[in-house]
Amino acid sequence: MFRIVIGALGAFAMALPAMAQVQRFPASFRTQDVQTNRATIHVRVGGQGPAVVLLHGFGDTGDMWAPLATDLARDHTVVVPDLRGMGLSSHPEGGYDKRTLAADVRSVLMQLGLDHAAIVGHDIGTMVAYAYAARYPDKTEKLVVMDAPVPGIPPWDQIVRSPLLWHFDFGGPDMERLVAGSERIYLDRFWNEFAGDPSKIDEATREHYAKLYTLPGAMHSAFAQFRSIRQDAEENVASMATKLTMPVLAVGGEKSFGANEAVVMRNAAVTEAASRAIGAYRWKRLSAPPLWNVRSPPPSCGATLAGATLASPMH
Predict the structure, then answer these.
(1) Which run of H or E residues covers position 118?
(2) What are phi and psi of 101, to 5 degrees?
(3) Which CA distances in Å does 144 have to 18, 170, 257, 261?
(4) How do strand 77-81 and strand 117-122 relate by DSSP bridges?
(5) What are the CA-CA distances from residue 54 to residues 105, 125, 126, 157 (Å)?
(6) Is the bond into 50 cis (omega within 30 degrees of 0)?
(7) Dist CA 195 CA 200 (whole Å)
(8) pLDDT digit string (tens) for 211-249?
(9) Are the C-beta atoms of residues 42 and 82 closer than 8 Å to each other?
(10) Are 89 and 221 in contact (CB under 8 A)?
(11) Residue 294: phi, psi to the nearest 5?
(12) What pTM was computed for the model?
């Protein structure tokens, strides 16, 4: 049985009071640094059972998954990396295309002795998750993508025209100089403009992540994540020629990517991907506990989405 509790979706779905601080991973989780191809990936590992990998996006790190990871660890081996160049992972000069980031994830799993895994991604993590599934389809049990387009996959050409996405091409030495010392202001732009309710991202949460993005090399790496998207698009167009065959769950927030998430994945997968808008506020998940389940359907609850199920919210 495939059971993944997506804390992000519960946070999207309900207006809950913000927590005073970012939730920590349980003491039962261990952390380690794994050497991959010219990068050191910081990873959290806990639980026992089928493997699940949780991939974060920009504006946060693997820390965002703590509520979900806590729940999943009851019956899964949960692997939560900081992506190359983000969080406590190293900041190599290159390798920020999503196929290389996917290779980092594959290397981490192999060194942990895990051959197969369900892959869950949000934001940039969605782009990496797709790249992983396309590159290692026989190692991907299930794929869950949330609230982000996949470069090159239709309707990419329409999506990328949005004026909100100017940051995709923002970067370079002068831009790094411009942002240096003002990382918090740059991050606030994302939290304020992409959140349905910016007040749900409390000050403690903002400070926690802003501190990580002021580490040496962090903003250089962050810009590189976005500036590689043109390369990602070219590679994904080629990958799309071979459709994904594993079950795919596409989830879009009502106030974010919405049903477009399913539209994208229908163009990338053989299975009939579907999406449910959940009243989502991007990043609201950072400060609220998990409330949504992806699992085998309980009686009269949820809609089957490409072989997985998004259950109704638990009150």
Answers:
(1) strand 117-122
(2) -65, -35
(3) 26, 28, 14, 11
(4) unpaired
(5) 10, 8, 10, 27
(6) no
(7) 8
(8) 999 999 999 999 999 999 999 999 999 999 999 999 999
(9) yes
(10) no
(11) -115, 110
(12) 0.84
